[in-house]
Backbone:
């Protein structure tokens, strides 16, 4: 059967008849039992096709129509349904009813005259052309509906649905209905067709009726009962499917679902559909102006819309849509209302801000007041229709004005009251703020820096607390404090400037001693402006230190008036007035027909250099010319692939000076070759004047590798190249970033960019383009300096206008931005005057360093600081130099009314009279003076020109003969600039080739006057030559580059004497200075053996370093090493000091120039703080203070041994002595952070940089690495000169550490490491320890023990502290100190005394925190402690007795006090003795270079 059914493709068809109580109103009541609704819901379940009203009262015509067709049954049509087992079936639905005539209200007469009970039980129905029924409206209008006939005009009924109405029907008795149903059932049962009882209208059902119906069904052989509701569409399909399953016996029994459970499921389905539909509406409908017609069309295809309309109908869907529209409109109105209410306070604030105007007005009156305001319509709109939310104004989004009728609402009235209260409170708070501020301003208790907690009780009252929040009065107090603090600081800064003479007299440096700081405190202590910052002592001290830094290192950036520094203003004025020479040079270079030359080195291994050179040549023209930016350049290539130390592979040849280098690599080996070659090239130029190879522009290029068989990846090569380029500080190009390939893939654009970079570097180094000739620079008759005070109340534009816009004013050839050339008729001839216009602080640096024929000094008559700076400046000017004082006033009236201006003018006149200078005053209100006012001054300058130049050359020649290196003036002679960055290691990086001084080609270019004067000096050719040479070198300076200047490193070396004529007279001494520059970014501390070597370099007695500040904005240093060593004749009485002095004496005796004095000696108003000049020793108090008395005692005892201090001569110029002493000042700088090793990025060590406890054991208390290094040094290096001072090769040190990290059994002797490399690696081990070898906690105790005055007690106290060291630290410290003691015993050979070793080692062993002033000032203490440990090593570690003090033996290095660095020969009456180096060594390295006669005299 199952197989047969599956094969039967015909859909089963069932004909079902729905029967129940029918008849007249008397029989059925006022309404039917719901048979039609049940059939309608089943046949057409959509809510829109469901009709509740189906009447049975018809007219005769309707009854006879084709729908009813004179029958008492309706054909509802055909329905296809899928039953529970998913089998589709077809059902024809017929409703048996009884139609009533609307005239007689009796049943219509039909062909069948049987009663309803018998007619309803009929199983065969026939009605020809009977149409399907839809609804009552169809009757009579059949043509308007679909016309579908009952199939074949006849149906055979397969089953019956017996309907029972369980609702409370009107005029109907349920028992009568049940009786009728019972009779009908009996009739139906006779047909033996399946019957299902359907309870209709269960949504209005009565519980009793439902029970009775179930009882009836149970009594009739367990009839199936289905509870339904056609209105709610509950269990309708279940009733028909239950009957179908009874008809088809093969189907399973249907599960009957109770009404309420089915209703719940239906309700959930409807609720879900409703939610989805509402979501759909909210998503589509955003505007409250949308209409249903357009929106419903948009939603027709949406399943959410279709499902809800199917279940609930279109009308309910439209109703929900309208509810959403209403909600949107309400929300829109509320948003607009909120916006209006939010804008209303703003409107009040804009229109009615005057509290007096509205203080007593109600909201209604305020509304009228608003209409009178001019800006009323800007804020409000008056609508014709009201209220505003019912008009189209709500949709006028462009008009944001407030509807005026909104003012009638309660929220608007509340906002008005709030506004009124706000104005009242603001008025009160403003009154309280004013009162609070007045209290602050008038209270004598409120001083700068006073904390709020202390000031609160003096100014606060109840009203302040009530009306002002804490943040408000704290803010007012903070602003007031800032104002008075700023004012106090400005006044204090002005006070410091007014005491300029004090600061310059004290000869301050970067680390002023406590003694000098105490003097400053004492002198300024009584000043009210000093006391004003009593509560801000730290800031006051910071201002003093900042001012000291300005005095010591004056630049535009450190100027107190920055950014309004006079120098910056002058540079702008001069540069805007003239086209600078550099600009002209650039223009000339573009028009120059000559082709510039680019010399390019190509460095690469294994053919890389040659191949790339060929590729570049292929891009050139036939004559090796390359086009860059439209200009032709001659390109000369030098490919190098071998050892660069060989002449054939040298970067530089007599005919080839490279401008740049391309470094090629394609493997680790070729990269290593590049690095080694660069290092070798740089090392080969150390100490040479033409050492520009150190700063040769480099470009590192990774090229494509052909036939790569090593397995190296491109990524690793790029990473290594980036690391190396960072180390070499050069450009790195790789194939990905730069597009430069190798071989055929080379990119012409990238090569052009590299060559452009080289051209820029050449121009920066003044290697390309023409520069002003030496003749132009030397061809100046007079050099005048004009000094202006920064911050003076006058305009530099007005003062300089007559000068800069004079027809005689031209641009200076030197290219300086602060100098001009004047061609003025002075006397019978025109003179070329180089006028340098500078600030006072810039003028300090040239006061002694260059030839100046006269000074024009301006000062403001109404500013004390201006005249004070003038006095400080003039104090150090020689009295033979003409001075023109210019006072700037506000006019004659101001002078009469202003006591200060009158006093300042009088003092200026008196100073001019006392120094025989000239004085004039210029009113600032009429600053358009003429150059003629300076003509008398220029005449004075011309008259004194010869004697000024003779004196200048004489001084320099004398300094040259005395080998004091005072060619470069001391900080005091110029300006106390910074000298804290010393670099003098033998591996110091050397600077580029441009020099602070002119090249030697400038020697023949002296002016005629200078040459003539030189010949007048007693006919002494040698001395004249020296003076001419120094005149040329000092007065013809090339202006420094515009970029920040790098530090300068000057050394006097053996090879730098070539420019002196060998035919000079015997008594002449030769001196020379070579100038080189460090890299622009300063020195790299990693180039030293240990980072602190960059801070302090130890010097032995034979070598003295003079640190002279250079005129730089970065505080860079000129370092001069004097290696002229005196020769002892064994008697202890002879020295080359005597020879120098006698030689200088002979020069002075024949000179026509007498020694000038300073203006301070001629004018009582200058140098009022001069008494402080000689009352202090030079240097920091922690370095020199504790032992100053010891030095004085030694000096007073006379000459005792070779190394004892010779006292200064009593008649010696104290200023000169102090300057010379300051030149030898030991300068230290804070310890930089330990450098990261370049290899540490790819190599992590388990031995270096780890705690000490991890590399020692009880059995081996000394680290193996330290043991190996010291054994190697003691076996091979104890006689090495400068051991531990001279740094080793950095890469070799890292290589040593790496190899040892891999193999602890490394044999240093086999690896052929240098002694300096091993020594540096050993120091690096200690510097990389996480904690210093001398623990920080012990350092405090050591310093305390060192303070003990009694020497023996001090040593015992230090020994007790030593016992407290951790065991590991004590053992290693003992081992290292013992080694250093052994090294010091060989000091006659290695020149490393215990003092020098302590200077080298104390930063490594102790590593103090240099961020604090205490640590900076205690450096001498730390060094002395380590020195004591080295000297007294047997006492501290081996229980030996205390050895004799170092000063007891003449040869002891400590016998010479470190703070008195100069030795003088036997005094020469009336002449200052040139300072000399101590003469402990038997022969000076300079002696072989001296002429034979001079050597003979040297040995006398």
Residues:
């Amino acid at each position: 059967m199952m197989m047969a059914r599956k094969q039967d493709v015909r859909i089963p068809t069932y004909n079902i008849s729905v029967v129940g109580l029918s008849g007249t109103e008397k029989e059925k009541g006022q309404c039917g039992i719901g048979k039609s609704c049940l059939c309608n819901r089943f046949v057409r379940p959509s809510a829109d096709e469901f009709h509740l009203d189906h009447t049975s009262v018809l007219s005769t015509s309707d009854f006879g129509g084709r729908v009813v067709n004179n029958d008492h049954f309706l054909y509802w049509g055909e329905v296809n349904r899928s039953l529970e087992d998913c089998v589709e079936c077809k059902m024809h639905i017929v409703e048996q009813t009884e139609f009533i005539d609307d005239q007689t209200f009796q049943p219509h007469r039909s062909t069948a005259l049987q009663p309803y009970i018998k007619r309803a039980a009929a199983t065969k129905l026939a009605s020809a052309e009977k149409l399907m029924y839809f609804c009552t409206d169809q009757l009579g209008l059949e043509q308007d509906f679909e016309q579908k006939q009952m199939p074949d005009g006849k149906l055979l009924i397969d089953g019956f649905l017996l309907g029972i109405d369980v609702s409370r029907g009107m005029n109907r008795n349920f028992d009568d209905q049940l009786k009728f149903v019972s009779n009908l059932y009996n009739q139906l049962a006779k047909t033996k067709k399946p019957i299902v009882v359907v309870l209709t209208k269960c949504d209005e059902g009565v519980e009793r009726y439902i029970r009775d119906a179930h009882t009836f069904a149970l009594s009739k052989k367990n009839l199936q009962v289905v509870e339904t509701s056609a209105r709610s569409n509950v269990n309708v399909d279940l009733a028909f499917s239950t009957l179908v399953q009874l008809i088809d016996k093969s189907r399973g029994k249907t599960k009957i679902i109770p009404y309420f459970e089915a209703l719940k499921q239906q309700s959930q389905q409807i609720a879900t559909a409703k939610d989805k539909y509402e979501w759909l509406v909210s998503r589509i409908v955003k505007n409250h102006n949308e209409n249903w017609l357009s929106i419903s069309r948009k939603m027709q295809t949406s399943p959410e819309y279709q499902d809800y309309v199917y279940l609930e109908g279109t009308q309910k869907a439209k109703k929900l849509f309208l509810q959403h529209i209403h909600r949107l409109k309400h929300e829109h109105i509320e948003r607009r209302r909120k916006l209006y209410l939010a804008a209303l306070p703003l409107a009040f604030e804009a229109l009615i801000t005057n509290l007096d105007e509205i203080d007593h007005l109600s909201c209604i009156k305020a509304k009228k007041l608003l209409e009178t305001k001019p800006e009323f319509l800007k804020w409000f709109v008056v609508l014709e229709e009201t209220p505003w939310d019912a008009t189209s104004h709500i949709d006028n989004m462009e008009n944001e004005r407030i509807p005026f009728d909104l003012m009638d609402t309660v929220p608007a009235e509340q906002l008005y009251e709030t506004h009124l209260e706000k104005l009242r409170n603001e008025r009160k708070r403003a009154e309280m703020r004013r009162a609070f501020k007045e209290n602050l301003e008038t209270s004598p208790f409120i001083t700068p820096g006073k904390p709020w907690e202390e000031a609160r009780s003096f100014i606060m009252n109840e009203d302040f607390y009530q009306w002002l929040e804490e943040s408000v009065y704290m803010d007012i107090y903070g602003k007031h404090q800032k104002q008075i603090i700023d004012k106090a600081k400005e006044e204090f800064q002005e006070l410091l400037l007014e005491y300029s003479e004090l600061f310059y007299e004290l000869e301050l440096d970067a680390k002023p001693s406590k003694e000098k700081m105490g003097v400053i405190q004492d002198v300024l202590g009584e000043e009210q402006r000093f006391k004003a910052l009593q509560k801000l002592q730290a800031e006051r001290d910071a201002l003093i230190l900042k001012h000291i830094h300005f005095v010591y290192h004056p630049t535009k950036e450190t100027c107190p008036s920055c950014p309004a520094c006079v120098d910056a203003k002058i540079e702008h004025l001069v540069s805007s007035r003239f086209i600078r020479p550099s600009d002209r040079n650039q223009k000339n270079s573009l028009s120059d027909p000559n082709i510039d030359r680019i010399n390019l080195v190509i460095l690469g291994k294994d053919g890389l250099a040659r191949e790339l050179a060929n590729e570049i040549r292929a891009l050139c023209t036939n004559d090796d010319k390359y086009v860059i930016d439209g200009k032709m350049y001659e390109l000369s290539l030098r490919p190098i692939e071998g050892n660069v130390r060989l002449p054939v592979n040298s970067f530089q040849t007599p005919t080839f000076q490279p401008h740049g280098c391309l470094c090629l690599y394609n493997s680790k080996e070729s990269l290593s070759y590049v690095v080694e070659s660069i290092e070798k090239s740089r090392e080969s130029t150390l100490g040479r004047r033409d050492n520009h190879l150190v700063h040769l522009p480099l470009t590192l290029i990774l090229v494509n590798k052909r036939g790569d068989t090593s397995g190296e990846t491109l990524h690793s090569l790029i990473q290594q190249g980036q690391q190396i380029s960072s180390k070499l500080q050069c450009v790195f190009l790789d194939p990905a970033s730069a597009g430069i390939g190798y071989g055929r893939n080379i990119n012409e654009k990238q090569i052009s960019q590299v060559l452009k970079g080289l051209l820029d570097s050449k121009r920066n180094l003044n290697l390309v383009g023409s520069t002003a000739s030496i003749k132009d620079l030397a061809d100046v008759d007079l050099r005048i300096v004009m000094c202006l005070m920064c911050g003076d109340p006058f305009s530099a534009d007005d003062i300089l206008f007559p000068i800069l816009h004079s027809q005689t004013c031209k641009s200076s050839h030197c290219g300086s931005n602060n100098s001009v050339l004047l061609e003025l008729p002075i006397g019978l001839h025109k003179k070329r005057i180089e006028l340098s216009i500078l600030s006072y602080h810039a003028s300090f640096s040239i006061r002694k360093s260059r030839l100046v024929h006269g000074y024009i000094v301006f000062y403001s008559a109404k500013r004390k600081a201006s005249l004070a700076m003038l006095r400080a400046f003039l104090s150090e000017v020689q009295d033979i130099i003409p001075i023109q004082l210019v006072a700037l006033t506000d006019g004659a009236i101001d002078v009469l009314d202003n006591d200060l201006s009158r006093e300042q003018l009088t003092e200026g006149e008196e100073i001019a009279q006392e120094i025989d200078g000239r004085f004039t005053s210029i009113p600032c209100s009429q600053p358009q003076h003429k150059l003629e006012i300076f003509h008398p001054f220029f005449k004075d300058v011309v008259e004194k020109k010869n004697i000024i130049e003779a004196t200048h050359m004489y001084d320099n020649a004398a300094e040259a003969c005395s080998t004091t290196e005072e060619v470069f003036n001391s900080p005091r002679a110029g300006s106390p600039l910074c000298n804290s960055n010393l670099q003098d290691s033998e591996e110091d990086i050397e600077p580029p080739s441009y020099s602070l001084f002119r090249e030697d080609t400038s020697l023949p270019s002296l002016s005629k006057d200078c040459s003539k004067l030189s010949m007048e000096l007693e006919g002494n050719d040698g001395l004249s030559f020296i003076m001419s040479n120094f005149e040329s070198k000092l007065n013809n300076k090339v202006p420094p580059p515009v970029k920040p200047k790098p530090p300068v490193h000057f050394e006097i070396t053996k090879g730098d004497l070539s420019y002196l004529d060998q035919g000079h007279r015997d008594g002449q001494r030769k001196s020379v200075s070579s100038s080189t520059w460090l890299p622009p970014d300063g020195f790299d501390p990693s180039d030293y053996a240990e980072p602190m070597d960059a801070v302090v370099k130890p010097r032995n007695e034979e070598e003295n370093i003079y640190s002279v500040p250079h005129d730089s904005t970065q505080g860079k240093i000129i370092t001069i090493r004097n290696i002229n060593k005196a020769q002892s004749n064994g008697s202890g009485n002879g020295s080359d000091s005597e020879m120098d002095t006698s030689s200088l004496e002979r020069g002075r005796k024949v000179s026509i120039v007498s020694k000038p004095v300073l203006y301070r000696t001629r004018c009582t108003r200058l140098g009022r703080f001069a008494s402080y000049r000689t009352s202090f020793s030079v240097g920091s108090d922690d370095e020199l203070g504790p032992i100053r008395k010891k030095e004085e005692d030694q000096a007073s005892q006379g000459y005792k041994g070779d190394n004892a201090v010779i006292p200064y001569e009593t008649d010696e110029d104290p200023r000169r002595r102090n300057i010379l002493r300051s030149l030898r000042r030991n300068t230290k700088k804070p310890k930089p952070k330990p450098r990261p090793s370049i290899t540490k990025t790819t190599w992590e060590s388990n031995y270096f940089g780890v705690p000490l406890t991890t590399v020692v054991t009880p059995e081996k208390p000394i680290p193996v690495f330290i043991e190996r290094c010291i054994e190697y040094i003691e076996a091979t290096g104890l006689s090495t000169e400068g051991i531990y001072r001279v740094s080793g090769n950095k890469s070799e040190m890292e290589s040593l550490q790496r190899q040892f990290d891999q193999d602890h059994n490394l044999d240093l002797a086999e690896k052929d490491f240098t002694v300096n490399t091993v020594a540096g690696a050993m120091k690096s081990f200690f510097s990389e320890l996480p904690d210093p070898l001398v623990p920080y906690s012990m350092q405090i105790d050591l310093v305390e023990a060192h303070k003990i005055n009694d020497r023996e007690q001090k040593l015992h106290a230090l020994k007790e502290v030593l016992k407290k060291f951790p065991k590991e630290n004590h053992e290693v410290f003992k081992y290292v100190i013992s080694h250093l003691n052994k090294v010091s015993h060989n000091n006659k050979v290695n020149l490393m005394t215990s003092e020098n070793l302590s200077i080298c080692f104390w930063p490594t062993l102790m590593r103090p925190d240099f961020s604090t002033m205490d640590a900076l000032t205690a450096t001498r203490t730390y060094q002395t402690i380590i020195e004591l440990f080295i000297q007294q090593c047997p006492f501290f570690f081996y229980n030996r007795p205390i050895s004799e003090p170092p000063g007891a033996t003449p040869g002891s290095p400590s016998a010479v006090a470190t703070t008195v660095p100069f030795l003088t020969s036997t005094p020469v009456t009336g002449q200052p003795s040139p300072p000399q180096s101590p003469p402990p060594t038997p022969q000076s390295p300079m002696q072989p270079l001296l002429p034979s006669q001079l050597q003979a005299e040297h040995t006398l």
Q: What stands out?
A: The mean pLDDT is 74.
